[in-house]
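User: Batch of two.

Assistant: Item 1 of 2:
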Amino acid sequence: MSANEGLASMPFSVLQGDLAALDEKGLRRSRRTLESAQSAHVTVDGKKYIAFCSNDYLGLANHPALIAAAQAGAAQFGVGAGASHLVLGHARAHEALERALAAFVRLPRALLFSTGYMANLGIVTALLGRDDAVFADRLNHASLNDACLLARAQFKRYAHNDLAQLERLLATSKARRKLIVTDAVFSMDGDIAPAPQLLALADRYNAWLLLDDAHGFGVLGAGGRGVLEHLGIQHPRIIYMATLGKAAGVFGAFVAGDDTLIETLMQRARTYIYTTAMPPLLACAVSKSIELIAAGALLRKQLSENIFQLKQILKDVSPEGWQLMPSATAIQPLVIGDNRAATDVAEKLAERGVLVPAIRPPTVPPGTARLRISLSAAHTTDDVRVLCDALIDAGRAFH
C-alpha cells in the first residue's frame, strides 16, 4: 500500500474532500510571506508592493519610538512574562499600561488580554450563562459569535443595525441578564454601529452593551479615543473592548469599564486566568503607542485625506458592476460579488505591485465577495493614486 493509499483510508480522506470542496468553490485561502517590517510599502516573496491589507491604520507598527520602547522593555523585563497575570506574570509594565489605557479612554479601569479574540470570549462567558441572553448584530466579528456560543446563553441575532428588530427581541426576553454585543466599526463593511441608540435600548431593557472597537480605537474621535469619543457617549452599562495590534501597532487587547466589571473579569474570565501574560516588552511598546496616538492628530488627518481621495476617485470612475460600500473609516470594501472574480482581481492588482486581500464567504455573506481596502496614514497621495489606477484598469479588463 502506498503512502497516499494509506492516507486515503484514514479519516484524513474526509478532510481531503473538504479541501477539494473549498477549491471547487474558490474559497481556499493561502498565505504570503512578509519579508520586511509591516508598512505601507512591503517586500513579499522577494517583490516590493504597496500594501492595502494591513490594519496598521496610523503606520505605527514599525515606528522607531515603539521599537526603542520594546528594546528598553526587553532589557528591563526580559522577553517572556513567564506566568499568567494572577500567578507571577503581571509586571509593572502591564500595570502601568492598564492605568494608561483606562485614563486614555476615560473609563474607571482597564484589563489587558493577549488578543481581542480572547477578550471577547472572556467577557461574554464570564458574564452570561444558561439563564441569560445575548443579542448580536449579524455582521459581528467571528470572535463575538464564538463567545456567544460558548456562553451557552440564548443567542439572539438581529439584522445588521436593525434597531427595531433588536428592540422586539429585548422586549420579549425573560432572561436573567441581557447583553447586546456589536462591532463598533464593522470589520468587513467599515460602517460604524449606532452606539447611542444601542445604549438607549440597553438602558431601557436593563442590558449591558459590549462595543468591540478593534477598528476604531486610535482612529476615531478627535483624540483617537475611539467610538466613545467619536459619538460622545459614556455610561456604566458600556463594556468597551479594543485591540492593540491595529492602530496601536503592537499586540494585545484590553477591556475597560466599571470597576466591578473589571474585577469580575479578572476573577472569572477564563481567557485571562488560564493563559500566560503578554510579554512586558510589548506593554512598554503599547504605552509609547498611546502617547503617539494622543498626539496623532496629523496622522488621523492624513488618514482622512487618503479615505476622501480614494472615495472621490472611485466615485467618479467606478468599475461597472462593482460597489464601493458607504464607509467613512479606514476600511473601504469594494464588493465584486463572485468569489473567483474577487481573487482574480486581487491577483491582477498584485501583478501591478498592489496588495489588496480578496475576502470571501464565510467571512462575508455569499455573493458579496470583495476587495477589503485598508488605508493607513502611512500611505501617500501617490500610493492611493496607484491603487485607484490599478483598480480602474482591472475593472476594464473584467467587464
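Item 2 of 2:
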Amino acid sequence: MLLIEQQQYPIGSVPKYNFSLSRNGGFGVPQGFVETCLCSLNGLYDSRKRGEVVGKPDLLTKEDAFDFSLEALSLEAIPLHAVKEEVTVVAVDVSSMRVGETEQGIIIAVRGAIVWNNRCSYRFLRLGPFLFHVTEENKSHVFSALSKCDEKFSVRIPAPDSFHLQTGIATVLERWLQLNLCMTNSGSLILLDGSLTSGTVDAPEEVVGMLLRTARERENSVLAFSKFSRLRLNGRPAIDVVNKSTPPCMVKIAGLSEPHGGALTLMGDVYVARLSENAVSFRLDIDKQLPQQQAVNAVEKLLGNDLFYQGYPETLRLAHIYSTFTANEVVGMQHYLTRERGVTLLSRPNLRRILFGPFGKGPEG
C-alpha cells in the first residue's frame, strides 16, 4: 500500500518560450545514476506484501545553513554598467521532493534543469525525474554507487543521516551537472543557485573546490545567487546595505571570518547585489580566486547579456522553473509507482485535523 496525504501543487502553465531542445551540449545522465535509481526501487517489490506507507510530498527548500554576525564595516557600493560583449550564460538548478515514506525508508524524486542563453535566445534541457527508494539499510550502497557513476567526475557525498537523505540525493545530481557545465563550456558565465560556502551536507569542500578549479581552467566565471540569506550586519539583514545606492550596483562584504569555528569554508567572495531598478537585493558569491576587477566584469557581462526579473537573472529563473515539480507530474510519479511497482495508494489521515478539528492547522508532523 502507498499512503499519501492530499496536497495541492501548482498546476498553472509555464510561460511559453521558443526553446530549441537540440544541441544540448552532449549531456546525458550517467548510466550508473539510472541503474542506481532503478536498483533502489527494487526494494519495493520485496516488501510490498507487508504494505508500503508513503507520506505527504515535501518540497526541498534551499537556504543558507548558517548565520554571520558582522561588526561595523566600511562598505562602499561598486557601480555596474552593462557590457554588451557577447558571452554565453548558462544556469543550472535541481529540485527534489519527498514523494512519501515507506515502512523502511523514503521515496525521493529529483530532477535537474539546464538553460543556455546566447543573445537572449534560450535553450533548455531537463533531466529526470529520477525516483529513489532510500532506507537505512541501502543508503550507504546508494551513495557509494552514485559517487562512482561518472568516470569524469567523482562526486563523493557520504551517506547522510535520515534527515538529510533528500538533500544528499539532490546534491549528487546538482554537483554532477555543475561540474559538467564547467568542463563543457569555455569563456561562459555559469550561474548557480545557492552560495559558494563549503562544509555543509550539500557542499563538501573537495567538490566545491573541484568545481571552481575546473571553471577557472576553462576561463568560465561562476556566479552563485542566493534567494535567501541570513547574513546580518549589525543586527540587520546585510542585503539592505545597497538599498540607498543607485542600481545596478553591488557591495563587497569584506572581513568575513569562517563561520562555526572554521567548520564551514568561504570559497567565494561575498557580495550584496542589486541589479535593476525597483528590485530586491541578493547575496552573490563569486570565486575568491578571481581578481575583483574580473569578478565585477563578469557581473557587468551578465547585465549586458541576460534579462532580469526583479533583479534576478532570467536564465537562472528559468532553470528553477523547469526543474520544479508540478501537480500533474506528482500524479504521474504516483501512477508509475502503482502500475510498475505494484503498490496501492491510500489517503493518509491528518492527525492534526483528527485531534484539533478546524484548529488543526500547520504541516503534518
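The CA atoms of residues 85 and 132 lie 43 Å apart.
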